[in-house]
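hi!! sorry for the late reply, been swamped w classes. u asked for the two structures so here they r. pasted raw, havent cleaned anything up. first the sequence of the first protein and right below it the tokens
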Amino acid sequence: MKYYSESITNLIEELASLPNIGPKSAQRLALHILNLPEARVKHLADSILTAKQKICFCKECFNLSDRELCQVCADEKRDHQTIMVVEEPSDLAAYEKTGQYKGVYHVLHGAVNPMVGVQPENLKLKELLQRLQREDIKEVIIATNSTVEGEATALWISKYVKQAGIKVTRIASGVPVGGALEFIDEMTLFRALEGRTEL
């Protein structure tokens, strides 16, 4: 027996297809949206469409941006000789919230995971290596997540960065094994950065 009309069911299914949104959360969100004033729903829909149309990848680090260069890469006060490699834009945002890191970033958009078909060529690793060749980089800080996939990605990166003769470091422990950086508190991230070790 169907509890909702087709249009409500479709909305719930679309919301449930988003990461970390289960069927019950999707149902709550759908019902909340339906109870909003029409102007708020239109504003929400417009915000989603505008973001989808205007947001692109920074040509330098592959962070999300509404310009050719993201705010970090465009900032001349940043240390452009130090690159922190992160898996996702949300990891970059987590480090930026600490206010302690003054270098630039490179966003991979994932981690090596052969079990689900994610190989190095599926990530922004080739672009990282090209960046290391064309820029005067002194240090690469690997800040991938403390998961099997994050560690595999870190090993792959360190191998190629070492071959280029560039110092490569890994953020220290304190970030729990299996932990995603975007969910770690700012002080733990700061200590992990400060305690990084050379690979």
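now the second protein. again sequence first, tokens right under
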Amino acid sequence: MMRTWEARGRLVLADQVPRVMGIVNVTPDSFSDGGRAEALDDAVEQGVRLVDEGAAILDIGGESSRPGSEPVSLEEELRRVIPVVKALAERVKVPISVDTTKAEVARQALWAGAAIVNDISALGSDQELTRVVVEAGAGVVLMHMQGVPRTMQVDPRYNDVVAEVLEFLERRIDWAESMGIPRSRVAIDPGIGFGKSIEHNLLILQNINRFANLGCAVLIGTSRKGVLGVLTGRPVNERGAATVASSLAAAVGGANVVRVHDVAPMVDAIKVWTAIRGWDEVR
């Protein structure tokens, strides 16, 4: 489904072809065990490589949100994220997203050249973050999560997961609009793997079209997640094919952005699919 998504005066989406968001994690276990400077260089080079492979957006995060993870301090997240954002903003032309729930991290990342704030709390954990997004004219990703990362996968329960996630996201879209963030700057993410069982995740992926009907760009992130491990029996580093399959299924259902670690195979899959669809954008 065709959607537009704007961020700081730039069109992130302007047609029906899904975009690939490449993940650059700058958590301690993401890169080499060398010094901080070496880790910075690794992160920047990874970001450049992902863009070369076809990423239309880069998403940079310095605080893990995997199940069971603990929060990091503001100071540490700033040390991890801001140098990477600044360096990549000087080397790539695609929009940069910062994956954070903290207003100060977002503020400094936007100053450094980012255009999008990807908030797993849907602007719910730091009230100042909304002001930062409004004042910068930034794009924003509003994600659904039941609970917090440390405990979110401990027996998540819903009466109707699709209806409840839809209702939550619609409320957050309305709230963002009331604060001065138009729908054209909002993308929504139903939060695969964030406080959801295997069945919950599959139900959401089967109903992407319902999320697309909310009138915002839809972002889906299944990359390497536990649901894929359960379905395939494969460890984290062997879930590339499952990531492509689930992300492409989401795109078929109406997702506009797919967030992945391995960009090249995802870009190839979308190119083939869009060619089969006969969309002029890929000819």
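hope this helps!! also noticed smth abt the second:
The CA atoms of residues 41 and 84 lie 8 Å apart.
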